[in-house]
Design brief:
336 residues, alpha+beta, Ribosomal Protein S5, domain 2, Alpha-Beta Plaits, 2 domains, 4-stranded mixed beta sheet, 12 strands, globular
Amino acid sequence: MRVGLAGGGTDLEAYFSEHGGAVLNFAISRYAFTELRDSCKGYFEAIATDTGRKVRLDISAPPLLSDCQLPLHLATYLYFIEKYNQGRTISVVVSTYSDAPVGSGLGSSSTLVVSMVKAWNEYFNAGLDENETAETAYLIERQWCGLAGGKQDQYSAAFGGINFIEFNPKSVIVHPLRIKNWFKCELESSLLLHYVGSSRQSSLIISDQQRLVLSDVERLNQMHLIKQFAFKMKEALLRNSLNEIKDCLNESWEAKQRTSALISNSRIAERISFAQAHGAEACKISGAGGGGFLLILTQPSRAVVLRNALIDHFGDNTFFATISEHASEAWKLKEV
């Protein structure tokens, strides 16, 4: 999964294809998992073990996405058999699990697709590198399944670590940031993720945001401002400045709210107000908005007290944002 620090929204193709986008994010130690097994039963089977959803489709003819309650699983399967198996269907069981629910704001759906792409890449020995893995996941999610969204999640999941990512009309450039280890520890001691408790359909918010941004000059100017905060956040990280990061988080959150009325709501405002009363110095919703996880920055000396206050009052999931340096991984297991 990932946490977006700045620039979120400028990775939407409707924006970066015209103006170029920039995002600063980091991968966290929350994951999506895929297990891919051959089967002799003549079916494509998909199992989302975290939600309990299962599908089984006959492969005597290529299954249709419209017939599947797990379209991301089926679309990834169909993409790989078309590209790497001459369209010949194969009997398999795909089992997945995610550490965060859909609509968490942590890029869970895209991370899941990256996980499945990595599994199929290993299965077919396709030789996809990190860029190709991210682009394939983006293609499957945005074009094959028609789900609205940006492009940062796939790249964060594929590359891991802390990245400043530039989105251009014909290319994506990933700049891994070399942050001093002591400052990474400072960040991990200062940043909390608190679940607001209301999952949402990010595609609805993103569609509203795109529509308004493309038709409203003022909202477009806010997107330009959000992009500039990504550059400012990069400099703040490289200067090891927690105060500058705080200012960027607060100012970019204000700008983001001005791009769509759906991004915040009374529940989010309540959680932010409570967090601020207990020591939070900056707050923003991670992801598209409307719900999911709230990213909170505080002084390390106050972090545990703030976390405990949130848990005691709301009883929801709150944890420190631990940075993951690892790229996505896949491997083969011998049958036992």
